[in-house]
């Protein structure tokens, strides 16, 4: 029969009607929950968690937030002594994570940021340490479920990243808050972990009082292409954010996405000098002073007359004589509240 194709065309409307009736019946009887995205189609969060910092039940709370918002169950990656978070965050990116949650203290956050900077993958913060300085600056809630929800639903903010080489080594470390040499690093180095667990941020105050008796050292500062500056000082701190524990502001002009780093030199030699420093920090004054000086620069080189204790985002990194520091503008995406607190300097 040469006209078989005519009959096939004529049957198409009837076939379409039958298929439509069957599909409508199936859709009406289907469970609405089964019509959602397949697990592999749901957004994926990865959690890089420091097991020594998190409390029991933290994992379950974060999983509940993820699944409650329609995300897949998160990829859970714990840090180790050998790898405090960088390798885990890289694995998360390789596995296709849409956001990586840093669940721990400032050291965990810094390690995760080292892997995420420049990738376009956002970092969420679940504060679980003693300082949590970046989280405080960004307005991240100090509550696991609220912080996890913010990490999944908040806005992306591109922030600057500090990069530092120590004593001319090839390795370039990342920092998000502050790096420094001298008095502040000595505090970090001498504060026992057990004391931080027992009394919290007060542990740093106790260590600070013990370290006040040290002497000033000669330091040479090279800021961008300006002529070198020579000072006798107790500490030099380079910051992306200027906020300390308790809401104190060490560097009033510091903003985490302004494309520059802030530098402060603190040089008291007596108890009266330390009182003057404390008053300047409390009142947020910015003007020049023989004991406290402020600058801004895109690249900074700090060289001391002898090796001094150094710290990167609160982690002691040993003694060093030279720090080469630069800013990597807006290199890292961080999840922040829809209306984040202004971290711009106060006027005046």
Fold topology:
Layout: H1 4-29, E1 45-49, H2 58-68, E2 75-78, H3 86-94, E3 99-104, H4 106-116, E4 122-127, H5 133-138, H6 144-153, E5 155-166, E6 173-175, E7 178-182, H7 183-190, H8 193-199, H9 202-211, E8 217-223, E9 229-233, E10 235-239, E11 261-266, H10 271-283, E12 292-297, E13 299-312, E14 315-336
Parallel strand pairs: 1-2, 1-3, 3-4
Antiparallel strand pairs: 5-6, 5-14, 7-10, 7-13, 8-9, 8-13, 10-11, 11-12, 13-14
Helix pairs in contact: 2-6, 3-4, 7-9
Low-confidence stretches: 1-37, 344-348
The CATH class of the largest domain, by name, is: Mainly Beta
Q: Compute the separation of the termini in Å.
A: 95 Å
Largest sheet: 10 strands, antiparallel
The CATH topology of the largest domain: Tumour Suppressor Smad4
Which percent band covers the strand fraction? Answer: 25-35%
Q: How many domains would you count in the coordinates?
A: 3
Mean pLDDT: 83
Spell out the helices and strands N to C: HEHEHEHEHHEEEHHHEEEEHEEE
Q: What is the general shape?
A: globular
The SS-based structural class is alpha+beta
Notes on the structure:
It is a single chain. The protein has 348 residues and is α+β, with helices and mostly antiparallel strands. The protein folds into three domains: 4-35; 39-153, Probable inorganic polyphosphate/atp-NAD kinase, domain 1 (Rossmann fold, 3-Layer(aba) Sandwich); 162-329, Tumour Suppressor Smad4 (Sandwich), CATH 2.60.200.40. The chain has ten helices and 14 strands. It has helices spanning 4-29, 58-68, 86-94, 106-116, 133-138, 144-153, 183-190, 193-199, 202-211, 271-283, and strands at residues 45-49, 75-78, 99-104, 122-127, 155-166, 173-175, 178-182, 217-223, 229-233, 235-239, 261-266, 292-297, 299-312, 315-336. The strands form two sheets. Strands 5, 6, 7, 8, 9, 10, 11, 12, 13 and 14 form a ten-stranded antiparallel β-sheet that branches. A four-stranded parallel β-sheet has the order 2-1-3-4, with helices on both faces. α2 (58-68) links the parallel β1 (45-49) and β2. α2 runs parallel beside α6 and α3 (86-94) crosses α4. The chain is globular and about 60 Å long. It is an enzyme of class 2 (transferase). Belongs to the diacylglycerol/lipid kinase family. Belongs to the eukaryotic diacylglycerol kinase family. Residues 40-168 form the DAGKc domain. GO terms for molecular function: ATP binding; ATP-dependent diacylglycerol kinase activity. This is diacylglycerol kinase (ATP).
């Amino acid at each position: 029969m040469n006209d078989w194709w005519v009959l096939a065309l004529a049957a198409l409307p009837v076939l379409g009607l039958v298929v439509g009736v069957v599909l409508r019946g199936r859709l009406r009887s289907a469970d609405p929950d089964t019509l959602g995205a397949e697990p592999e189609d749901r957004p994926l969060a990865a959690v890089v968690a420091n097991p020594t910092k998190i409390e029991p039940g933290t994992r379950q709370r974060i999983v509940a937030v993820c699944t409650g918002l329609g995300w897949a169950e998160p990829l859970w990656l714990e840090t180790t002594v050998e790898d405090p978070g960088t390798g885990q965050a890289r694995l998360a990116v390789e596995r296709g994570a849409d956001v990586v949650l840093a669940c721990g203290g400032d050291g965990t956050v810094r390690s995760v940021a080292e892997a995420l900077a420049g990738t376009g993958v956002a970092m969420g913060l679940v504060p679980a340490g003693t300082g949590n300085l970046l989280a405080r600056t960004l307005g991240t809630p100090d509550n696991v479920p609220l912080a996890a929800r913010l990490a999944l639903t908040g806005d992306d903010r591109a922030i600057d990243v500090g990069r530092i080489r120590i004593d001319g080594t090839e390795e370039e470390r990342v920092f998000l808050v502050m790096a420094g040499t001298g008095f502040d690093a000595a505090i970090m180095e001498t504060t026992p972990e057990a004391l931080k667990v027992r009394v919290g941020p007060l542990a740093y105050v106790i260590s600070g009082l013990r370290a006040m008796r040290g002497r000033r050292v000669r330091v040479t500062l090279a800021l961008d292409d300006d002529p070198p500056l020579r000072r006798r000082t107790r500490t030099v701190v380079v910051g992306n954010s200027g906020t300390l524990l308790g809401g104190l502001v060490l560097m009033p002009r510091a903003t985490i996405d302004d494309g520059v780093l802030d530098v402060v030199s603190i040089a008291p030699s007596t108890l009266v000098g330390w009182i003057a420093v404390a008053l300047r920090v409390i009142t947020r004054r910015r003007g020049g002073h023989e004991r406290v000086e402020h600058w801004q620069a895109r690249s900074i080189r700090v060289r001391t007359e002898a090796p001094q204790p150094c710290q990167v985002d609160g982690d002691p990194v040993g003694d060093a004589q030279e720090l080469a520091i630069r800013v990597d503008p807006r290199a890292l995406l961080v999840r922040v509240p829809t209306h984040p607190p202004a971290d711009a300097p106060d006027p005046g």
